[in-house]
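Example with several molecule types.
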Amino acid sequence: MNRRNSVIISLGGIPIRIQSDNKLLVDLAQYGFRGFLLPTGRPVITVSVLIDDTRDMNAYSYGKPHHTSVVSDSGKFFAKGSTYSGMFDILSLEGEVRQSVAIAPLYLFLRFILSVYLPFKGGFVLHSNSILKGGKCFLFSGKPQSGKSTVARLSSNYEILSDDFSIVRKMGGFFRAFGSPFWGHVEARGENIKNALGCASIAGIYFLSKDTNVYAEKLGRKESVFKIIENMAILSKDREANARLLSLADEFACAVNCGILHFKLDNSFWRCIDNA
Amino acid sequence: MLNMYVSQNKEIAYRVIEDEAIILTPEDGMLHNLNPVATVIFEFANGTRQVKDIIEKICEEFDIEERVAHRDCLNFIEDLVHKKMLVLSGKPAKLSK
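Resulting structure tokens for the full complex:
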């Protein structure tokens, strides 16, 4: 593998080297992850990208759910989606992916790596956007079509760290949300997301429910854990990873405000959040 | 069945919150919530205890008639075995040190 063709990025505070014999792929990665480049620094994870031109790029469409199957065996996690197949070794911290020369499959593969690795580092990847308002970070979570991108669009006055998938980690005793390149509708339509290399402490998480009324409904601890796990990006079949996820979800549910946000198509929901 | 040994499925992860177990079954990625009685049954199933031991434990913990505990425990255990959360065996499991 030609290491001169490589770029180092930081996702969730984890330095990752992306390398490939294909220079165009690395150039695409440099552009696609432009908010997350780490000019200096030692990578923790190394991802080698092998080009497979038989992969059907038309299988990938904006806004459609991407199903990834994940199996694990002796510390190796294998993932297969419609546009890529790959492996991540959680012991050596090396990954390898087969895909076409495109950025979208690489986004999906890195999301898979973070989903299996972060639980061992006190974190997880969640179907949610993350929005900074008044120095506090709020997560709005839900499956596709729940309204995450709508909420992000209605919050254009505030800083959006991510609009589709959020990277969450417990650091220094607090749960923090990191800027994320895992874009959804907002980025895809060319609207501006401020992808931040930094992170912000999370004040609350709200699970979205489209409604004709606007109100926030507080969730108990157990219900919150259910909702958090249900909205994890990827669940593997690895018992240890899942045990860590359950533990983290419970800690998270105890640490931040958790609720269901009933909202309509305007930004009046922010009054509920402010009063919570 | 009373003399069968009961153990947890080693593939599943769980956490007890407010006396109720939340279980994540890996095959389907589904979450399951056990009520307090089922949680005691689940946690007591360490592979070295038989079904009859669990029934006795339930009687002690919840102060209920043995007849009722017998019926409910068998129903719970069969249900959890069907959902692959518990495993029945004719031999005791070896406890790890």
